[in-house]
Amino acid sequence: MSRYIDLHTHSNKSDGTMSPAELVRHAKENGLTAIALTDHDTIDGLDEALSEGERMGLEVVPGIELSVMSDTETHILGLFIDPKSTALDRAMKRIIDSRNERNRETSRLLKKLGFDVSVEEAQELATGGIVGRIHFAKIMVQKGYCKTVKEAFDEYLATGKPAFCNRQGITAKEAIEIIRDSGGYSFAAHLHLMRRDDDNLKAYIKELKDYGLDGIEAYYTDYTDEMH
Asked: Which CATH architecture has domain 4-216?
């Protein structure tokens, strides 16, 4: 009998659309046996997800997705972390402060391009409190600047595009150490979004491995058969 899991999910505490409890119920209804909640730069949804998972009989792995300093774009997944970890608690303020600075810069870049998109508007969409590029993209669609969220990313918000800001508060090495010190395991997320050629990517993953990286995300929604 096949059993399916998803170790990379987001709730509305970051850039997902469902509450943590709704996400757990959705996973259960669709036949999954386990999920990891890995919201961007926040653990605010973990208690709710863990509680609902226990109630629904679905294993919930406590996790987080940390954005880190990089030449392009790098996210490190932390799985099986301890949400009560002092190491994680100490790091969160710096991580959130950096994200707030990045959002202000994103808004500035968009306005420079002629798009009236404010951080305050993005915050109104971010019901969980964590603002990300997805919220800016949705506002651009709402205001008619772009037809779709994908267009907003492809033209303006993705890595290397004119409104992309890669300001981060922690290095990859620090993220891996934070996850390890929180009792978890670290994985490089969606390698294709790093936008590195094969040789550069291999060298970078080796560097991360030397820092203590436990693995890479081998399956992701956007991966093609060739990527697998």
From this structure: Alpha-Beta Barrel (3.20)
